[in-house]
Amino acid sequence: MSKGKVRIGIVGSGVMAGNHARNLAHNNVVELVAISSRNMETGSDLARKYNARFMPNWHEMLQQEDLDGIIVCTANDSHGEIVIASLEHDKHVFTEYPLARSLEEGEVAAEIAISKRKILRVSHSDPVSETHQAIRQKIEHLGQLLVASFMRLTPGRGGRPEVLFNLQISGPPAHFFIYHIYPVVDLFGQAEWVEANAIYSNLNDSGSYDQFVNIVTVGFKGGGIGHWTWSGGIEIQSAEQHHRYVLDGGTLVNSGGGWQISTRSGIESITPTSVQYSSVVDLWLSEVLNNNLVSAQTDTTKALDAIRVSLLA
After folding, report:
1. I need a surface site. Which of 14, 81, 97, 241 has the fewest CB within 10 A?
2. Which tens digit of pLDDT belongs to each residue from 175-187?
3. Per CATH, which fold does 6-125+277-293 belong to?
4. How many Å apart are CA 295 and CA 75, to the nearest integer?
């Protein structure tokens, strides 16, 4: 680090890369040094906008000595390779979820981060979510989990069908939607067993398809059942999403209007609590600056627990 600033390189030049670059530009503990992208046009434009070096080859960028950390903003199937290589080149790493496209890559990345004493964090925002932390506080007083359920139904293919509706790039839908799995694993712990089923309409040799149903059920080591259902490209007027955490002492419910606790005696809204960091990137930067390895390693373990569920779908 130079003059107390974390010198950052970004791999990728899409929407998420642009968001990170814009936010980093207003952060006084960061210097955005380089951007790498296989898209010469968008990559060079982004680098020029934020006065950073553009490097088409991310392997070459990792060899630069004036970089402390790497932010990975590429398609799911390349996360693991770039994360591992970045750590091997003694860089701290922040990656968009999922941690990796395969469990093996994720485990290797976690091992290298420990051996190299580098900060590795995945972009799951729940550790800095005011609502998620309030939910954590509530369930501590509600006893044993019985079942945690989630359902999402969507009528269309979304804005990025080539990514979501492709098994080779993104893996099963559960892996693309791992941000629905991570918070449940974070609250209720590791899965002891996993069962999954999937249906894909018009699946072709390239891994693309037009419609899907993906269902995952787990049994948590600490007790209770977890269940997720995702279905996309289906005949429904508008998207629907429902969460339920059923515990001995009450049921936490969210059907789109915010989280509530429901019991026989009534319904109570959950008030968000205060958190220390405004974003998960700010948390990662703090861990880098303060060499907080324990916090980052704990999160990496949870990210691995989440992909142990998602990749079995």
Report:
1. 241
2. 999 999 999 999 9
3. Rossmann fold (3.40.50)
4. 26
Residues forming beta bridges with residue 95, ordered by sequence position: 72, 122
Contact 172, 214 (CB under 8 A): yes
User: Tokens 């960061």 map to which residue?
Assistant: 30
Residue range(s) in the chain whose domain bears CATH number 3.40.50.720: 6-125+277-293
Place of tokens 């999922």: 98
**Phi/psi of residue 310, nearest 5 degrees:** -65, -35
The model carries a pTM of 0.95
CATH T-level fold of 127-269 = Dihydrodipicolinate Reductase; domain 2 (3.30.360)
Q: DSSP state, 245?
A: E
Per-residue tokens: 253: 């419910």
Q: Angle formed by the axes of helices 293-310 and 178-188, to 10°? A: 120
At which residue do the structure tokens 């580098």 appear?
A: 118
Burial of 272 from C-beta contacts in 10 A (0-12 / 13-18 / 19+):
middle
What tens digit of pLDDT does each residue of 95-111 get? Answer: 999 999 999 999 999 99
